[in-house]
Amino acid sequence: MITSFIVSILNMHHLLPVLIGQYGVFIYVGLFLMIFIETGLVVFPFLPGDSLLFLCGSIAAMSSHSLNSIILIILLSLAAIIGDSLNFEIGQRFGKQLTTPRWHKVIKPKHLAQAKAFFKRHGSLAIFLGRFVPMIRTLIPFTAGISKMQYRKFVFFNILGGIAWVNIAILSGYFFGNIPVVKAHFELIMLGIVFVSLIPVAIMALINKRKGQKADA
């Protein structure tokens, strides 16, 4: 899975323009579904949302391609918001069943524990902050649903976080994705985005490990 994930990151820069040429405006449907699935279905936390949004922004800045940055921002913000809302409902209605051992292969207990720790540490703000952390991003609304968080409060941070995440990622690609140095090393930049965004997860894992060692001592 890790190998195929890295391959998809490396090929995305070449694959997406080809798909745009083949499918035209229908590519928006595919992009909507990618962001919706990553944020809305708890079993797909590994999809490259940050990299995809950055790449879309950089392509939208090119006059030779048909992607429109405004349409991207509106459409993909909606996908992120609706996705998190669905994920919240899944957690609220089916959270207990989906956290049993039979689901551990698709919903990793380690990742779920990280999301719970993140949610416990940041409270309601975790819904907003979690948008910017891979793996955590998909599991935070699910965790909020399990914890029976008040939906009115969840919706506020969901909308705020969805709009902020999509705008920052797409506009970063739009303004910086076509700088010669970035274009020349685009694959490395994509991997760099993934690496940097995983740093908070690694720090949380290290903190949890140290806490566990202290508890066992």
UniProtKB/TrEMBL annotation:
Q: Which UniProt keywords apply?
A: Cell membrane, Membrane, Transmembrane, Transmembrane helix
Q: Which residues cross the membrane?
A: 25-47, 67-88, 154-176, 188-207
Quick check: keyword Membrane in the entry? yes
Report the residue ranges that make up the VTT domain in this protein.
47-174
Query: Which Gene Ontology cellular component terms are annotated?
Result: plasma membrane
Which InterPro entries does the UniProt entry name for this protein? DedA-like, VTT_dom
Q: How does it sit in the membrane?
A: Multi-pass membrane protein
**Could you name the domain of life of the organism this protein comes from?**
Bacteria
Subcellular location as annotated: Cell membrane
Query: Pfam family of this protein, just one?
Result: VTT_dom
What family classification does the UniProt entry report for this protein?
Belongs to the DedA family.
**Name the record gives this protein:** DedA protein (DSG-1 protein)
